[in-house]
Amino acid sequence: MEDLKYDTVMVRYGELAIKSEQVRNKYEKILIKNIEAMLDLHKIEYQEIVRERGRIYVISEDKRAPAVISNVFGVVSTSPVITTGPTLEESCKVAAAIGKEVIKDGESFAINARRAGAHDFTSQDAGRKCGDAVWEAIKDRHPRVDLKNPDHEIFVEIREERSYIFTGVIRGTGGMPLGSQGKMVALVSGGIDSPVAAWMMMRRGCEIIPVYFNNEQYVDEAYTQKAIDTIRKLKEWSPGHDFKVYEVPHGECLRTFRERGNIRYTCVFCKRMMYKVAIEIAKKEGAHGIITGSSLGQVASQTSENLLIEHHGIDFPIYHPLIGLDKNEIVDMAQRIGTLDISVRPAMGCQAVPKHPAIHGRIEEIMKMESEQVDFDKMIGDALSRARITIM
Ligand code: ATP
Ligand code: MG
Questions:
Q1: Is residue 2 part of a domain?
Q2: Report field, pTM of the whole predicted structure over 0.85
């Protein structure tokens, strides 16, 4: 059987449709730029990208294009389509060819026909005629028409200038075009959770500034490498938008605290320190918030009491998109994002974590340590001045 030539990718996007004309225009432009950058990243050739009636059409014959475009944030779904002329005859011919290719012996099908513009036939006519054409083409396979639950649905969209015929629909990532919302500082460690959290906010349209705190003497090289590789993987979801990556030395600060403070509060202190440094970075970079991978109760530092202490006196939004998710849900997402394989590589994680970390921490105690035993402001300043910045 001759190979059908799918020449265009139909791209559907969701939430943008409910915005005002002006906002929608702006978002659509961003979405198209992001689609272009994604296609370039994967070296996929295309002739043109057009906007038409709340859809985007990418003219490309590359078979990888529909799946690749479905990974652009903001895309609800894509379909490889065959375009033909706007007449009934042309549409029927293509629908029949698609039916011949996909419908197997005894399977059922349905035609989903739509029409827009001036034609001398209705969409019902189109549906009936195309259905007849498909049936005729494969009648020796004993096909059945099933409008409710067909094995194959063939879509026929007839417009003024051309028709689009297709059958497959690939689910997209959804969300909003990256760059349509404000920037965020994403705290990314070598673990499974934080890249997923960053990705979720990217999916909502945020550009991110990844920040990794290097616990130096308390972790090994492999751990740091995991964080860096994870960030690189996240970058693949963000073509066309640079990542400004901060690597902040954090080992000395942990050591000082362990020497002078109550060791059981190490993780709470560590987190507060990270927030404060991240906020300074956010202010410098014009970012609107901080993202972490905290999930309630997952580890000692993530009890509600400790989260309360961590946020005490912090007047900047800290987002925890995974707070209500279970670990297995987070792992599934990490798998899909492509960061899981990196995050589970063997490495020596933080050795500064105390044997018996405080689970029911007390605000007064940690505040007292911060004001009396360590020079918090100086530590923040030092960390910032020693941060290493890389553009990815
Ligand atoms: P993850 O699985 O994301 O590595 P975790 O389970 O090790 O996190 P915590 O150590 O309590 O849990 O960290 C909670 C959040 O704090 C992380 O999800 C991440 O956003 C941030 N974080 C922790 N360690 C670092 C680090 N070394 N650099 C940057 N951010 C960090
Ligand atoms: Mg975790």
A1: no
A2: yes
